[in-house]
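job 3f2a | input accepted
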Amino acid sequence: MSGDNPEDNKQTPEELEELKALLEQERLAKENLVNEIKEIRSKKQELEAKLEEKKESKPEGEETPEEIVNRILRERDSQSIKNELSQAELDFKKEHKEFLEENDPGGLKYQKYKDTLAKFNLSGLRTKDEVKQRMSEAYDYMNRPVKAQPINNYQGSPSNPGTPASTDTGPALNPGESKLLEQLGWSKEKFMEQKAKRPHYIQGLLRNIN
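job 3f2a | predicted structure (210 res):
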């Protein structure tokens, strides 16, 4: 039984040269990477020093480069939000055709709606969907059923001798919630259901009850 021939495992001169070349390439790559990192750090330190010097020596009222960048970003963000608001308004009118120009020539209907919308907090809204959600909440609030107050011409004692005791065992409503129920014409069960499903919507309505 013959063993492996050691001569078979020897690398040829060409293979050794190729291996040396690969090792040298790897060494140079690492060396270049280290030099690049050192150069980046050096430039960063120089830039920070120049910015600090600029801050200290800038005339009164002149913006620093950092302030200019922040201002541009704020303006760009503000413009983006305005575009979202405009698109949300167009989509909302398409969904509620009573506000289209042909159905509301003088814009009175939409002005009434905008007066209602002004009672809602729109700050912090950044996307079209968020704006449309708040606009829908204002629309629902504007079109809530208003319960007519009963007219009692009799000035004496009320015809009802008393009010039956409530059998409601649910959580008690605070005065604001009770008033909102009266304005919306909702049952307590519907209110509690909506409060659980859409708490932000209910909070917005509570903030704007008359």
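job 3f2a | The radius of gyration is 37 Å.
job 3f2a | closed
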